[in-house]
Amino acid sequence: MDGFGSDFSAGGSGGKMDTGTIMEQVKVQIAVANAQELLQRMTDKCFRKCISKPGSSLDNSEQKCIAMCMDRYMDSWNIVSRTYNSRLQRERARM
Amino acid sequence: MDSYDNISASEKAEAADLQRLIATEQQKAQFQAQVHSFTDICWDKCVDSPGSKLDYRTETCLVNCVERFIDTTLTITNRFTQMVQKSGH
């Protein structure tokens, strides 16, 4: 916990940050990390699905495939999220 | 600067409050990380060629995939625990 506190105070002007400001930063950092994770995994999956033989440029059908793949990946993410969430709730109710 | 042992009660309450809020956000982040991992695994199992819409079969496959992955985790954890307990005695 030592480095944690000093990281935040180093960012301010020497003064203390209020709880709201710190939480705002924490939430933004988590959201950015989440978006990066999604982007990285989605790129990996859609590259595999859509570009079988990399040519001199992304052709029209590849671009269409990428767009479709992105949308379906995000749909899948949401389905998985809902399923996992309801499973967690069921498990908690069982305890 | 204040020394550590004369922090006021209100500051202590604020610190406890912050710790609780951060723990909640940490839990949410952990949930999201788990969803990324499940999506990765189940996408490979369930989605062949992404169409203009996820069809019903794919949706069912994704749901089953997540549920069975969790079942597998629980089964393996239980069995492994038993193995360790048996060999420990």
Estimate what percentage of residues of chain A fall within beta strands.
under 5%
Residue share in helices of chain B?
over 70%
> Per CATH, which architecture of chain B?
Orthogonal Bundle
Distance between the termini of chain A: 32 Å
* The CATH homologous superfamily of chain B: Mitochondrial import inner membrane translocase subunit tim13 like domains
- Which segments of chain B are poorly predicted (pLDDT under 50) over 5 or more consecutive residues? none
Identify the notable features of this structure and list them briefly.
heterodimer; A: 95 residues; mainly alpha; Helix Hairpins; 3 helices; 0% strand; flat; B: 89 residues; 2 helices
Question: Helices and strands in order, then pairings?
Answer:
The complex is a heterodimer of chains A (95) and B (89).
Chain A: H1 2-11, H2 19-50, H3 60-94
Chain B: H1 9-46, H2 56-88
Helix pairs in contact in B: 1-2
